[in-house]
């Protein structure tokens, strides 16, 4: 689409030019199989190892504990199934939150069918779990706690480092963190001995490519291979490794971390400005995202309006935003996150998510504010 302003960066991002360049170069020059023993294979493997080390360094772990995957969904599935299936000697109790991404929720539901005991941590109206709830629910036979860092629908940030401390003090459970929405926006790492045990990342949320991701561990875990074959990726995930994807992801990750502070300041400023504008509409608008949430996501709801109506009205004026999440936006039922926040019925149907990315400019935000004013006036004028 020409002349559109893209503000749906939590659904996916446009790859950065530098990332595309890295991908092209590897495809053109270093296309050999990294498992081959000839010189070209060795070169390709060197690139792969460097990419692995770069991402491992950012996460503060070792390269040998980091797998390249096809994205956040695979990383989440692999982490949860892997930890659950390898620790039945300790127990079968799993804790997660009620606002996880479907790639976590559907996986734990499958484990429930396999006889695991899954419990959910509730969130308050800001979308945040309670550490006391965690303390109460964690048990000696808890083997896995899976908590997302930043919620994809409304940006709530979970206290993952405090949670890690509690989990490690009170049980032998592993903490898996879905950092798909937080990596490159907030500091994400294993923090030496104190952090999570396992982290998922997705390439396409950080101006890398769709079909690329990372699953990283703090240390060696007992683990069953989940793709059998040639034994690549430390025997856990067989299949010829996509070196261009890995290099591109490492490049995107490095750029994201290098520019993180500046972008966070910019996003926060934009969020504050739009928040102030939306607050001016009184009861007509309810803002779901809190000022303590992630800076790049701002979700709000317009009273008694359907999300699609607002999205279409904004799209006609060149602004691309989404309903609360790309995964649930095509479904008609209210999202599980919106349900968990116990929103007033009047605000449940019209949740809109604005999400900023590296390509957005001050001019985009000025245009957004103008369009928001026009659209809300057009659709809600009578009650303003
Ligand atoms: C929080 C979260 N986890 C996991 C995923 C899935 O990632 P991917 O699209 O790379 O499979 C998403 C994607 O929207 C997400 O927002």
TrEMBL record:
SUPFAM superfamilies: PLP-dependent transferases. It holds the Pfam family Aminotran_5. It comes from the Bacteria. InterPro entries: Aminotrans_V_dom (IPR000192), Cysteine_dSase (IPR016454), PyrdxlP-dep_Trfase (IPR015424), PyrdxlP-dep_Trfase_major (IPR015421), PyrdxlP-dep_Trfase_small (IPR015422). Keywords: Pyridoxal phosphate. Transmembrane segments: none annotated. Coiled coil: none annotated. Residues 5-368 form the Aminotransferase class V domain. Its cofactor is pyridoxal 5'-phosphate. This is Cysteine desulfurase family protein. It comes from Lysinibacillus irui.
